[in-house]
Specification:
Shape: globular
CATH architecture of the largest domain: Alpha-Beta Complex
CATH topology of the largest domain: Sulfite Reductase Hemoprotein, domain 2
Largest sheet: 6 strands, antiparallel
Number of domains: 3
Low-confidence stretches: 1-23
Number of strands: 21
Radius of gyration: 21 Å
Length: 403
């Protein structure tokens, strides 16, 4: 892992301050993104886990240096919102003291590792995740900022729909495989080979010249008729994929949802007091280790049938300066009318940051109102244009196709 003990935020403060207004990339701890409510600072917890002490520390920092709002992203990261330029440096120092960031900016940028949350002590997942973190800290791969790894080592694949470029998974017969995203089969490896095999795939990706200005991804590269070398391709089919889980209990703890993936710092502090650790998920939920009953707290989604779980919405206006419309109030109002077999995505603009994929109903904010798309994503053809929120709320059944 990176060396946080010798972290010196003054060393990088000047260069970071000049990049606050850059768009077209995901925010990070060193490269925050300017939004309508201030800077957005993204944290990548190691192994997808916060200890109780780290969670309390993040809650305190978010309240002290941000506006108290914290996002859980689709990549199982945390975002502290509403940070001022003057507060960025002390926030970095506080995160370093918690052991949550690397001292080296390049190491931090490529430590993009998603871990399926339901691992058990001794099943090898935590060891693999730690080994991959350490290997990434010792390497200079030169991968694009969005390039990532997924550790999905359970008997069924939980992360099949989550974005990643190199995947460590179980094969259909139970052994570990390393698979390039977009490839149907992976290479069978032993536990001591998995990390090196994953890095070999990443290095091949870079060496094959598909950076495309720093935004290349593995699956589109393979789809363009590029063939993996035989030494990396493998011939083992991955284990079956399953749908994302719902809030509830299992023998390892409790899974709770967050409305639109956002919580207040007080909520994170509350969760930190329930368990030795919290595991983040790409489903905008938090897994609370060892909890034997569902918690009760404002802002937590604890019912598996809550319709808000089938609704996705970005921050919208005025929080996002690129959004043409407010999104989350509209999405929350429409949620109770959503049939159980449908999903709704409300996006403030055509970028579709909150959900790049297709939904049963997609609403896209434009200068003229909302575009309505059936069974598609924000970039697909609209069935109707220029809809105003009042008309959508006046007849939600017609909008959702159930009237």
């Amino acid at each position: 892992m990176g060396n946080t003990a010798q972290f010196d935020c003054r060393r990088i403060a000047g260069s970071v301050m000049n990049r606050f207004t850059i768009k077209g990339w995901c925010p990070s701890v060193y490269r925050p993104m300017l939004s309508g409510d201030g800077l957005v600072v993204r944290i990548r917890p190691r192994c997808g886990r916060l200890s109780a002490a780290q969670a309390r520390g993040v809650a305190d920092l978010a309240a002290r240096y941000g506006n108290g709002l914290i996002d859980v992203t689709g990549r199982a990261n945390l975002q502290i919102r509403g940070v001022s330029a003057a507060a960025h440096e002390p926030l970095l120092d506080g995160l370093a003291r918690l052991g949550l960031i690397d001292a080296d900016e390049e190491c931090e940028a490529q430590r993009n590792v998603l871990v399926a949350p339901f691992w058990n002590e001794g099943d090898g997942t935590h060891l693999l995740a730690t080994g991959l973190d350490q290997a990434l800290a010792a390497s200079r791969l030169g991968v694009p900022a969005k390039f990532g790894f997924a550790l999905d080592c359970g008997p069924q694949r939980l992360l099949a729909r989550a974005q990643a470029d190199v995947r460590i998974e179980r094969g259909v017969a139970g052994g570990l495989i390393v698979r390039a995203d977009g490839a149907e089969q992976g290479r069978l490896v032993g536990p001591d080979e998995a990390v090196n095999a994953a890095l070999s795939l990443a290095k091949w990706f870079v060496e094959s010249g598909v950076m495309r200005g720093g935004r290349g991804r593995m699956a589109p590269h393979l789809a363009s008729s590029t063939k993996l070398p035989d030494t990396l391709a493998g011939n083992t089919i991955p284990a079956p994929a399953v749908a994302a889980p719902s809030p509830g209990l299992d023998v390892r703890g409790a899974l709770v949802g967050l409305v639109f993936g956002q919580m207040e710092s007080a909520t994170l502090e509350f969760l930190a007091g329930l368990a030795p650790g919290l595991r983040l998920t790409p489903w905008r939920m938090v897994f609370i280790e060892g909890l034997s009953e569902m918690p009760r707290h404002d802002g937590l989604v604890t019912r598996a049938d809550d319709p808000i779980l089938r609704v996705t919405a970005c921050a919208g206006a005025p929080v996002c300066p690129q959004a043409h419309a407010e999104t989350r109030g509209l999405a929350a109002a429409l949620a109770p009318h959503l049939p159980a077999d449908m999903r709704l995505h409300v996006s403030g603009c055509a970028k579709g940051c909150a959900h790049p994929g297709a939904s049963s109903i997609t609403l896209v904010g434009t200068e003229d109102g909302f575009d309505l798309i059936h069974d598609g994503c924000t970039r697909d053809a609209a069935a109707a244009r220029g809809l105003d929120p009042a008309s959508l709320l006046a007849n939600p059944a017609a909008l959702l196709g159930v009237g």
